[in-house]
Amino acid sequence: MSKNYENLLKLIEERRAKIGVIGLGYVGLPIVLRFCDERYSVIGFDIDPEKVECLNRGKSYIKHIPSGKISALIGKDKPSFSATTDMSRLAKVDAVIICVPTPLTDKREPDLTYVEKTAAEIVRHLRPGQLISLESTTYPGTTEEVLLPLFQKNGLKAGQDFFLVFSPEREDPGRMDFTIKTTPKVVGGVTRRCTRLGAALYSKIVTRVVEVSSTRVAEMTKLLENIYRSVNIALVNELKMLCDRMGVDIWEVIEASKTKPFGFQAFYPGPGLGGHCIPIDPFYLTWKAREYDFSTRFIELSGEINSNMPYYVVHRVMEALNDRGKSLKGSSVLILGIAYKKDIDDLRESPSLELIRILKGKGAKVDYNDPFIPVAVIHKTGLKMRSTGLTGANMKKYDCVLIATDHSEYDCRWIVKNSRLVVDTRNATAGIKSKNIVKA
Questions:
Q1: Is residue 221 in a domain?
Q2: What is the pLDDT of residues 289-312, one digit of tens each?
Q3: Cβ pair 428, 403 in contact under 8 A
Q4: pLDDT tens for each residue of 240-287
Q5: Mutual orientation of helices 67-74 and 49-56 as an angle, nearest 10°?
Q6: Looking at the predicted structure, is the pLDDT value of residue 321 above 80?
């Protein structure tokens, strides 16, 4: 058996392994905290010096992570956590966990720039006895086709000198019923030893590790999870548009369907998909499928439906304004909520940003309010906007109030009472009777 394998396994089991986490965002920072909870020493790596400085001062920049959790880790004589932009410190860690973004290009093709740049830094400092885990969502084959050749180019051998696994993140910002600890972790390695070491490492921070036969299986697992959600959300989004024409309340339909105790799981419509995973992951697989001369028509159709939802919402706003003798051009619209889902401060791929872009493109005057996001930069335009206050006098200034994110802080009865027109994309006004409410 490999000496490097035995030594690293012992370090992990005895909690003497030093952990490195690259990418200190919504995925990486919770993993840092979880390893610190289990008494591991952790170095966090990020290319953003402002994030690093913030963390080293004991401050959090993510709403659901309190600053007290950070300061408790760095305010000791022997801190268990530190953050840095110095990638040379990768040589000092025993396990490296990669949590960097994997966005799409403008042509909706995988953009592995962050993964490749991170891998190049790891190669510069890779030493025998290290474990590398990629958590960033990607297409099947990335770990073996992109990372493995890079890591082996200096003569080191996977499964003997170093160990490489893919273990997809399953972070859901703001969710309280499941945590990193209670969410099973899938691990697949490029060799059997790699898988065992990856499982040994993650078993220290989660209650259940699911070992799979390869990195490709682990990569596909993540895609299936999110494509499943994307397809079902597209289904209810399409039914919502049909129900609007038929005069049927889709939300009432869903609630009635939920009463069936088997064979049905509720998904809900909205103004579009948000977050880093569901709007992006399906396109990673459709791109890879072309390599095998295979068309993923079902997945592509769901992506098309979901991508079209912001346009549908804007159309409903136009109709609602038209019914009141106003055109969208020149009208003032207040968007409530620009986080991609309720009660979080995460803007990634939020449909509200697309709503703002489309509305402005059609000549509307647009403001937003979000209690968790005081300043926002609108993608594709670079426009910086600030959250406007919610007062009765302010609300009455707008021709339309568009509920895009149903934050718990919003008092919808008060909003309806103080608005000329409310277009509701989340069923936030359920149970409120008013001629000024339009569902979209």
A1: no
A2: 999 999 999 999 998 999 999 999
A3: yes
A4: 999 999 999 999 999 999 999 999 999 999 999 887 777 788 889 999
A5: 70
A6: yes
Q: pTM of the prediction? A: 0.91
How many Å apart are CA 94 and CA 141, to the nearest integer? 24
422-424 and 209-211 beta bridge pairing: unpaired
In a domain, 123, yes or no: yes
Domain-located, residue 219: no
Domain residues for 130?
A: 3-212
CATH code for position 21: 3.40.50.720
- pLDDT tens digits, 367-385: 999 999 999 987 666 778 9
Query: What's the CA gap between 346 and 349, in Å, rounded?
Result: 9
- Residue 70 is encoded by which pair of tokens? 């950070």
- Say which residues have a Cβ less than 8 Å from residue 104's Cβ, sequence separation at least 6: 110, 111, 280, 283, 284
Q: Judge if 195 and 242 occupy the same domain.
A: no
Cite the active site residues.
Answer: 277
Residues 179 and 259 in one domain: no
Let me know how long the chain is. Answer: 440
Dist CA 330 CA 333 (whole Å): 10
| Pair (117, 175) in one structural domain | yes
Strands 209-211 and 185-189: parallel
Residues 88 and 138 in one domain: yes
- Total count of domains within the chain: 2
Please report which residue ranges of 203-294 form alpha helices under DSSP H: 215-246, 250-257, 281-290
Long-range (24+ apart) CB contacts under 8 A made by 32-41 are 32/81, 33/65, 33/69, 33/70, 33/73, 34/180, 34/181, 34/205, 35/204, 35/205, 36/73, 36/80, 36/81, 37/205, 38/204, 38/205, 39/15, 39/80, 40/15, 40/80, 40/204, 41/80, 41/81
Paired tokens of 405? 């994110």
- 218 in any annotated domain: no
What's the mean per-residue pLDDT of the chain? Answer: 94
**Phi, psi torsion values for 81, nearest 5 degrees:** -145, 140
